[in-house]
Design goal:
This protein is an alpha+beta fold and about 375 residues long. It has helices at about 1-10, 25, 60-70, 195-210, 235-240, 330-335, 340-355, and strands spanning about 10-15, 20-25, 30, 35-45, 85-95, 105-110, 120-130, 135-140, 145-150, 155-160, 165-170, 185-190, 215-220, 220-225, 245, 255, 260-265, 270, 275, 280-285, 290, 305, 310-315, 320, 360, 360-365. It has 7 helices and 26 strands. The relative contact order is 0.14. One of its GO terms (molecular function) is structural molecule activity. Its main location: other. The basal body constitutes a major portion of the flagellar organelle and consists of four rings (L,P,S, and M) mounted on a central rod.
């Protein structure tokens, strides 16, 4: 019973009930409505001796000197020796259509050999996009989720003390120039490309408008055009379209994570009638060396006599027949009837696929 429950727990079944529809906004993205990634390099100050060692991190020394010189402090003839500063990389996601003055969260990660960013404050750091332009400015106290404590003979670390976040730590200074309302055509990108799903999305949109407005271009793209005489712009049209219900189609696929023994099966997985036998060969080797002492007053030495016990056990399993299944539940029940674990299920599924009896794609992570 324990083996059966373990098998059930390690098989994640994505068996979606029939006729389960989803909103278009949950299965697709609209062109232009997307985040933009930002990155910057800065300094965190105010650390309690847990920052970078300037001898091992020359970029921290150079950045610190350049910052002080911009503030009017001459450090050319000064030997900087502080461990309260750390060089960090700052990353953030710029939300779509973020306006000037909007605040966004940033992530701060140590770049040098700093031990912890706890208690530190990020100095003004420009965040740049892929085009090299600065879109936001970050600054503020760093909050970390981990900590590190140590004594003379022991230390403990929980979480990652060299990375943290600043909630609302950046101000948007530059907007992305994209005017969605002026577009006449917009592409709808499916998150899981599929020919059938793309066609169903186009049909649902055309039925709503009453005109051939949407056209599937490929498995992942549906072209949407603003119809002539429409009372509104493309934003009004997308607002109505994203609420439409569409039943996405799924290919028959089995995803296997061999490192953790997890199996994920899609609803459309089918298997033809096939016979399966599974057996385990267990080899047990135990060592019990015996110490041999010389006789009293004998001119001899103590010796160790090796003793090895070897045992071979083979679990015999009869040939079982897994009938042709209609549903995923019947397939799983048929495999569980063999009384095997998740690791063996992975090998059996791969063997069934090799025999041609499994009508599904197997993806190994």
């Amino acid at each position: 019973m324990q083996r059966f429950l373990l098998t059930i727990a390690c098989i994640v079944m994505l068996a979606v009930p029939a006729q389960s529809a989803s909103r278009i906004k949950d299965i697709a993205d609209f062109e232009g409505i997307r985040d933009n990634q930002l990155i910057g390099y800065g300094l965190v100050v105010g650390l309690q001796g847990t920052g970078d060692s300037l001898n091992n991190a020359p970029f921290t020394r150079q950045s610190l000197q350049a910052m002080l010189e911009r503030l009017g402090v001459n450090t050319n003839e000064v030997d900087l020796n502080t461990d309260n500063t750390a060089a960090v990389m700052v990353t953030a996601n710029l939300p779509p259509f973020a306006t000037q003055g909007t605040r966004i969260d940033v992530t701060v990660s140590a770049l040098g050999d700093a031990d912890s960013l706890q208690g530190g404050t990020l100095l003004v750091t420009p965040l740049m996009g892929a085009d090299g332009e600065a879109y936001a400015i970050a600054q503020g106290p760093v909050a970390i989720a981990g900590f590190e404590a140590q004594g003379d003979a022991a230390s403990i670390t929980r979480g990652v003390p060299t990375a943290g976040r600043i909630a609302n730590g950046a101000l948007v200074e530059r907007e992305v120039d994209f005017k969605l309302a002026t577009l006449r055509n917009v592409r709808i990108a499916l998150r899981n490309p599929d020919l059938t799903t793309a066609r169903r999305v186009a049909i649902a949109v055309n039925e709503l408008i009453g005109l051939p407005t949407a056209e599937p271009l490929d498995p992942g793209t549906v072209q949407l055009s603003l119809p002539n005489g429409f009372n509104g712009n493309i934003v009004d049209l997308l607002t109505d379209i994203e609420q439409l219900l569409v039943e996405p189609d799924q290919p028959a696929k089995i995803v296997i994570d061999e490192s953790s023994g997890i199996i994920v099966m899609g609803q459309q997985v089918k298997v033809s009638t096939v016979a399966v036998a599974q057996g385990n060969l267990t080899v047990t080797i135990s060592e019990s060396p015996e110490v041999i002492q010389p006789n009293p007053f004998a001119n001899g030495q103590t010796a160790v006599q090796p003793r090895t016990d070897l045992e071979v056990t083979e679990d015999s399993t009869q040939l079982a027949v897994v009938d042709e299944t209609i549903t995923l539940q019947e397939l799983v029940d048929g495999l569980n009837a063999l009384g095997i674990g998740p690791r063996d299920l992975i090998s059996i599924l791969q063997a069934i696929k090799a025999s041609g009896a499994l009508q599904a794609e197997i993806e190994v992570l």
